[in-house]
Amino acid sequence: MNLKIAVLSGDGIGPEVTQESIKVLKTIAEIYGHNFEFQEALVGAIAIDETENPLPEKTLNLCRESDAVLFGAIGDPKYDNNPDAKVRPEQGLLKLRKELGLFANIRPINAYDSLLDKSPLKREIIQGTDMVIYRELTGGIYFGQKKISEDGTVASDLCEYSKLEIERITHLAFKAAQTRKKKVTLIDKANVLETSRLWRRIVTSISREYSDVTLDFLFVDNAAMQMILNPSQFDVILTENMFGDIISDEGSVIGGSIGLLASASVGNGTALFEPIHGSYPQATGKNIANPIASILSASMLLEHFGLNNEAKQIRIAVDKTLKRNIVSVDINKETPSSTSQIGDVIVQML
Amino acid sequence: MNLKIAVLSGDGIGPEVTQESIKVLKTIAEIYGHNFEFQEALVGAIAIDETENPLPEKTLNLCRESDAVLFGAIGDPKYDNNPDAKVRPEQGLLKLRKELGLFANIRPINAYDSLLDKSPLKREIIQGTDMVIYRELTGGIYFGQKKISEDGTVASDLCEYSKLEIERITHLAFKAAQTRKKKVTLIDKANVLETSRLWRRIVTSISREYSDVTLDFLFVDNAAMQMILNPSQFDVILTENMFGDIISDEGSVIGGSIGLLASASVGNGTALFEPIHGSYPQATGKNIANPIASILSASMLLEHFGLNNEAKQIRIAVDKTLKRNIVSVDINKETPSSTSQIGDVIVQML
Ligand SMILES: CC(C)[C@H](C(=O)O)[C@@H](O)C(=O)O
Ligand SMILES: CC(C)[C@H](C(=O)O)[C@@H](O)C(=O)O
């Protein structure tokens, strides 16, 4: 298969971890006779530094012309602590999601047998956890109108959802559940929010088309608790943008490190694959970041194009590497391996 | 001291647990020579059933005339699963918060030595946790304009904050930090939300008046992770309404049960004291609910009026009861005590 892949490695540890994914993808291409073409482009703080634009036109065009985007990370503390910055790195990622129509962010969360004791949660709590979060990604309070009064004393963000926005991701979530444990849990705050009540109405109505799938509801506050008390109760979680952001980062503690969590963002055109962790500025350039989230995102990329065996081989190689305790410092403080060492071992395992 | 206390025990297990708090408060009044007068009023689903109004005028007036409100719980599944209900129990609580001007909800979270092994989190993770969450309670997306289009296909909720709303709770949080570990962590999503950037600006500026207190920032997604990875890093958490709702319920897993978590809501007039758990409909009438969250809320009530020793005696009695493993089924499935037994033991301990 020929695939044109745009590489947006971004800020902080983004470039380091993305480099390892590329190594893995190149190895897969060689072994299985595919042709993957990689083209790099700027995004985030580094794009602001060079072009004053967190998502240069050139980058967006490259993404549009590509089959997939391999994304690194975004964000820089010099913007985080400056609420007055007019341009911020995150705008690059948000605009990219919107422009590419990436309305569904898919985040699988599993407990790895070899890492059961690495989690802050007890082994018996996380054992058997196997869920996937469908987070709506181009709507809600992230993209609604933002206002600040002229004198700077009143600010607002609008959370808005339309039927169409809810329907399209709901179908994806139910279809996923059909291939899994046949359960969808909608997380919302329908006892307070009008948008949540719209979600509940539409999701309930769509659920009738999937009679083999059970639909459950959880208020987001309760969900934040249930995620920790009993994560294995979940199969497919469906939720809006902001709740999905919070709940999926919370869920990352189950696997033992956020450095393991991959995601796929899909929609109308080019799909995007990115680790859910951030740019982790303190680790930049130190060759200590965990590349596995990025490598598993590359595996999701292959799966997206039907290269299921290739995707699986990556997952198996990652599993083996974890079992051999070849892991980065986020998982093993005593004898950590470096970012590039882990990449090398995964490549060897393939 | 003379105190007039409005009792709004509400729905589900609310009445059962509140009854135990009243028992405890009456005992305190006897021992220390106070005069507490209790008057009951309707709120929530039960108020809708009887008056079609989740917060009858009579209830609101009683609260206004009282020194404090002892609140039980609110909510009924018959409304939760009906997104079309026009009147809902939660409106009673939300209106009460707004009408009484209860802008700050204060939620302490501790790990109890005797319960360290009851948490889904590992003992070494939670040991030493001692934080208090200051959640803004009368602003944000809870109270902004809600809209639904006539054809029911587009809904919105407005999240709005003003300088004044942020300032008043910020001062409370910093003052609390001064009496504690001298650290405030602001939880927001300033990389996306305009309201969060307003929070960051105002809180940063106020922090200069409290030079003995350190101010930290955490994005809410990261905070949801840090809460589980390393809860003892926190002292005072300051956050807006919705994030506070999610983060504090999440934090309840630290103590081993949400049935232990008390809260005080304070503002311009009458203060309100309530467990953070919900109405737990499945347990209603079974005498199995945990009354400790309610009893500790009563202790916060006494503290609010400067009855620090009395408040402390309740906390000591609760500690002793927990140590003797006299706990409800949420904490001990094998040999649980009933709601009223636990209340009785705490009364004896006083
Ligand atoms: C960087 C930030 C804007 C982003 C988000 O909130 O969506 C990130 O946290 C994520 O989850 O991908
Ligand atoms: C019942 C509900 C409206 C309420 C809230 O979300 O504030 C509850 O969850 C709480 O935390 O007190």
TrEMBL record, chains A, B:
Cofactor(s) it depends on: Mn(2+); Mg(2+)
Subcellular location per the Swiss-Prot or TrEMBL entry: Cytoplasm
Site (Important for catalysis): Y142, K189
Residues bound to Mg(2+): D221, D245, D249
Bound cofactor: record note: Binds 1 Mg(2+) or Mn(2+) ion per subunit.
Pathway assignment: Amino-acid biosynthesis; L-leucine biosynthesis; L-leucine from 3-methyl-2-oxobutanoate: step 3/4
Residues reported to bind substrate: R97, R107, R135, D221
One Pfam family named in its UniProt record: Iso_dh
Gene Ontology MF annotations: 3-isopropylmalate dehydrogenase activity
Keywords: Amino-acid biosynthesis, Branched-chain amino acid biosynthesis, Cytoplasm, Leucine biosynthesis, Magnesium, Manganese, Metal-binding, NAD, Oxidoreductase
Gene3D superfamilies: Isopropylmalate Dehydrogenase
Enzyme Commission number, as recorded: 1.1.1.85
Catalytic activity: (2R,3S)-3-isopropylmalate + NAD(+) = 4-methyl-2-oxopentanoate + CO2 + NADH
Domain Isopropylmalate dehydrogenase-like: 4-346
Function: Catalyzes the oxidation of 3-carboxy-2-hydroxy-4-methylpentanoate (3-isopropylmalate) to 3-carboxy-4-methyl-2-oxopentanoate. The product decarboxylates to 4-methyl-2 oxopentanoate.
Classification via NCBIfam families: leuB
Family: Belongs to the isocitrate and isopropylmalate dehydrogenases family. LeuB type 1 subfamily.
Subunit-structure text: Homodimer.
Name of the featured protein: 3-isopropylmalate dehydrogenase
Organism this protein belongs to: Flavobacterium sediminilitoris
Gene: leuB
